[in-house]
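[Discussion] Sanity-checking designs against the backbone

I'm trying to build intuition for which residues belong where. Below is a structure token string of 418 positions. I'd appreciate it if someone posts a full sequence so I can compare it with mine line by line.
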């Protein structure tokens, strides 16, 4: 048996960062930028107003107050998106809207609240200024956000909504990113029925394909569903063949000792096996290997294959621990680990078989401290325990028990934002 870290190391050694491609910016959320992005323009392009108000020469406001307003002649209005045709000279002002370019001759903007605008009915040819302003007030300078020629985003950045907004502010419609991995998913088991079919006696619905495909999608990959293979080598090989253009293959089931060692045999014939059991619970039976596939233009290539356990909880937990980091590495990401917090345990937990235990817990913050309580029965078939959990409490292999009040590490699966 190997440790969780050894297993992960072996897997990560086998996966590589994928190629990059040019994609529409909105499709790149969560992907890694594969170019340095320079700006071809100033953002904003021109000096413009930060407020609705009057564009003035600041020295015309000297001595102005609510008691003794300074009156200026209004020579025009400028809205966002248009350029003022007139030039402000001493004694004059232009009514200006937020975002509108600053007219010639202007060095500051007095906001409406500091004028007698509201006392006047309709448009007026005169405005009273009610305070002194210094030069530069309420003016956003050209290029203050992004200067023309500067590097705005660097290669390796993960594109979040803010980065996508910045790309749009530069007028970029597409950007180079490391492409998303295609992850093929194959369920195995004579007992499995597709969710579109009625359920005969003795059968169960194939749920793993859907929980795993959803995980692939959540972490930025593209799931390719290969369906259900029966517990025969012929059936598994035939289905796997449809996944040979994927970047990674996941199978579920068929790896435990009682299960004809099906996936093991297939892997041994179609590629290479790397390991078989990991010192963890759930998820001890876990296969990793290489399947010989074909890439673009028929060139042979190796596809990493993870044979996850069939139990619905085990397959999800091993996905989080092994498939997720592998996918993220392929996507060019550097941070491959889920966030871990320290929490106070609320129930006693025993862990006698010297494996690392990942127990499903509900984590809550109370009085500035995290608390973790078990979701209930921890059987690996109880998939609803994953719906109540937001974290996995980690009990080390050498720790036979924890008692209420102990501090433990919890790998957070979710932060319950939604
Ligand atoms: P196995 O690893 O194939 O021995 O499967 C272990 C347990 O997980 C058995 O109870 C299976 O019925 C169940 N199981 C396997 N594959 C799936 C699946 N795709 N969906 C739901 N349950 C499954
Ligand atoms: Mg099975």
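Best answer:
Here's mine. Compare freely.
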């Amino acid at each position: 048996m190997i440790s969780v870290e050894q297993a992960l190391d072996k897997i990560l050694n086998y996966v590589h960062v994928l190629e990059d491609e040019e994609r529409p910016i909105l499709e790149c959320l969560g992907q890694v930028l594969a170019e340095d992005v320079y700006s071809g323009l100033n953002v904003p392009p021109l000096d413009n107003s930060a407020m609705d108000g009057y564009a003035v020469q600041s020295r015309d406001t000297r001595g102005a107050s609510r008691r003794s307003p300074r009156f200026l002649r209004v020579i025009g209005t400028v809205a966002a998106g248009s350029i003022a045709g007139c030039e402000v000279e001493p004694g004059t002002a232009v009514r200006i809207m937020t975002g509108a370019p600053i007219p010639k001759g202007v060095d500051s903007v007095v906001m409406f609240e500091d004028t007698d605008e509201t006392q006047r009915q309709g448009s007026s040819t005169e405005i009273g200024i009610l305070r002194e302003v210094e030069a530069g007030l309420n003016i956003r300078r050209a290029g203050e956000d992004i200067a023309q020629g500067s590097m705005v985003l660097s290669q390796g950045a993960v594109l979040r909504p803010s980065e996508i907004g910045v790309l749009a502010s530069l007028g970029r419609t597409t950007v180079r990113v490391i492409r998303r991995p295609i992850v093929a998913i194959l369920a195995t088991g004579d007992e499995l029925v597709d969710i579109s079919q009625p359920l005969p006696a003795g059968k169960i619905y194939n749920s793993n394909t859907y929980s795993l495909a959803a995980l692939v999608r959540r972490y930025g990959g593209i799931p390719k569903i290969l369906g259900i293979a029966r517990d025969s080598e012929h059936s598994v090989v035939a289905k796997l063949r449809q996944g040979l253009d994927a970047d990674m293959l996941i199978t579920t089931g068929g790896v435990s000792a009682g299960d004809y060692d099906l996936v093991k045999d297939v892997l041994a014939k179609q590629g290479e096996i790397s390991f078989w059991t990991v010192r963890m619970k759930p998820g001890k039976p876990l296969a990793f290997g290489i399947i010989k596939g074909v890439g673009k233009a028929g060139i042979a290539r190796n596809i990493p294959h993870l044979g996850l356990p069939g139990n619905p909880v085990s397959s999800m937990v091993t996905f989080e621990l092994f498939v997720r980091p592998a996918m993220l590495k392929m996507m060019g990401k550097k941070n491959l680990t889920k966030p871990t917090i320290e929490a106070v345990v609320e129930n006693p937990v025993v862990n006698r078989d010297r494996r690392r235990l990942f127990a499903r817990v509900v984590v809550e913050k109370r009085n500035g401290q995290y608390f973790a309580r078990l979701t209930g029965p921890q059987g690996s078939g109880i998939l609803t325990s994953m719906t109540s959990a937001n974290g996995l409490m980690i009990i080390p292999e050498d720790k036979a028990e924890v008692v209420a009040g102990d501090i433990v590490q919890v790998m957070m699966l979710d932060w319950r934002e939604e």
